[in-house]
Amino acid sequence: MTQMTDPVDILSRLIRCPSVTPDEGGALAALETMLAPLGFAVARPVFSDHGTPDVENLFARAGTFGPHLVFAGHTDVVPPGEISDWREGPFSAAIIDGELYGRGAVDMKGGIAAFVAAYGRHVAHHGAPAGRVSLLITGDEEGPAVNGTAKLLEWAKARGEDFNACLVGEPTNRETLGDMIKVGRRGSLSAELRVTGRQGHVAYPHLADNPVRVVVAIAEALMAEPLDAGSERFPASNLEITSIDTGNPSVNVIPARARLFFNVRFSDRWTPESLKEELTRRIEAATASQRFRPGREAAAVEIVWRERPAEAFLTRDDALTQSLIDAIADVTGRRPELSTSGGTSDARFIKDYCPVVEFGLVGKTMHMANERVALSDLEELTRIYEAFIARWFAAHA
């Protein structure tokens, strides 16, 4: 049991597993070994889908009845990049000057280690909680997110699992542990626009149709007018052009085709459907007014919406949010900001099953070479999670 209450030992064992998406890398096997002494029943389902790699996941539950608290996260990590950029090997779990180094230390094996240790301490100090505690762990968060959390939730529901609340252990804090809880997320919508013109020599433009003229006009129309001013809990929606590409290496050739890519992070003033309608209106207006050249017909534009847009959502569960706020205040003395900022996470799937909030480590070094966590932060997060478990179950007694 001693090892199962030490987050440094748990995290070190997880980091030593090279679980780069989509490889399990031994991380789920190591986690299962650590959960068994705590009384968890563990399943490791593998999910498949056309055109994507198979992914192994983990679902572990302790307890058989009563209120059900879920901790969600992922053991998969992004590639380490150039090994020479690391002070020590990215999977060595080296401790240097009070910090534990390794890919996944912050995003997010550290959060998993802290929760396992917190549960172990709760059992050691108070016995098992009066209810059920589960871990919902995927190996597909950093990848396409097709064979991970979404399917694991469906799998669990089909087996009769019902959840009352979920804590996602993603790194949410900006500067100091305890400064931010994510209580929702902005939506995300991406698309590709394809404009076909006519290739030609730049010295004879009357014989060609340059699609870049149309793409530039569309880009201006998409970004010229703000989508909204935000709402009470969400910042203003934002559209960014992420790429304009002609695939043309020559400076004296008018390209035949041009593509434009964009992404929108949007507030709760939009749904994916209503946002698509607004953006289509802007694209069609720009296309109708912009011809390849005066006297030519308007260009034809194909809009290819990317699959599975994420909806904006906001969690409204006072017992869940207040239990976490009070736990953070107990340990750190801080009152965290409740935020919907940042990118998407697997909380976008979980919110369809139960209320969900996110709280984890400080995210300054995630996805960087020399990703690392201060041992003091890891210990403090463990204490916060332990206090949260106690407070949440007390609120549901």
Report strand %: 15-25%
Q: How many E-type strands?
A: 21
pLDDT averaged residue by residue = 95
- The SSE order reads HHEEEEEEEHEHEEEEEHEEEHEEHEHEEH
Cα-to-Cα separation, first versus last residue: 26 Å
Structural class: alpha+beta
| Gyration radius, rounded | 24 Å
Biggest sheet character: 6 strands, mixed
- Helix amount, in percent? 25-40%
Shape, per Cα inertia axes: elongated
Question: Strands across the major sheet, in which order?
Answer: 1-4-8-5-9-20
- Helix tally? 9
Q: Low-confidence parts lasting 5 or more residues at pLDDT below 50? A: none
Give the SSE layout.
Layout: H1 7-15, H2 27-35, E1 41-43, E2 46-49, E3 52-56, E4 58-62, E5 68-74, E6 95-96, E7 99-101, H3 109-126, E8 132-138, H4 149-158, E9 165-168, E10 180-182, E11 184-185, E12 187-196, E13 200-201, H5 211-224, E14 238-245, E15 253-254, E16 257-266, H6 272-289, E17 301-305, E18 313-314, H7 318-332, E19 337-339, H8 347-350, E20 356-358, E21 372-374, H9 375-395
Parallel strand pairs: 5-8, 5-9, 9-20, 10-19
Antiparallel strand pairs: 1-4, 2-3, 4-8, 6-7, 7-21, 11-18, 12-16, 12-17, 13-15, 14-16
